[in-house]
Amino acid sequence: MPQDFAETWLPRVLSTFARAHPAVRIEVRTERNAHLVNHVMTGKLDLALAQELTAPRRARSRGEG
């Protein structure tokens, strides 16, 4: 997740989510978009929030992106 999002709106959103879903574990990382997308593609992350990133060729060939 881009750091400016993590610092501004994410704390409020996560607080609300945690109250509604106390059994869910959330780990937040701030890294470059390409690294986050790569982590999702390799199964290291379940979800990434990224901005305007062209899908890797492998994802486009599978019809994703």
**Radius of gyration, in angstroms, nearest whole number:** 14 Å
Estimate the mean pLDDT confidence.
Answer: 79
Number of helices: 4
**Unreliable stretches, pLDDT < 50, 5 or more residues?**
none
The rough form would be described as globular
Give the distance, in angstroms, between the N- and C-terminal Cα atoms. 18 Å
Strand content: under 5%
How would you explain this protein's 3D organization?
By secondary structure, the protein is an all-alpha fold. 48% of the residues lie in helices and 0% in strands. The chain is built from four helices and no strands. It has helices at residues 3-8, 10-20, 33-41, 57-61. The longest helix has 11 residues, at 10-20. The radius of gyration is 14 Å and the shape is globular. The chain starts with a helix and ends with a helix. The relative contact order is 0.16. The model has no long low-confidence stretch (mean pLDDT 79).
Concise overview:
With 65 residues, the chain is mainly alpha-helical.
Please give a handful of descriptors for the protein shown.
48% helix, mainly alpha, 0% strand, 65 residues
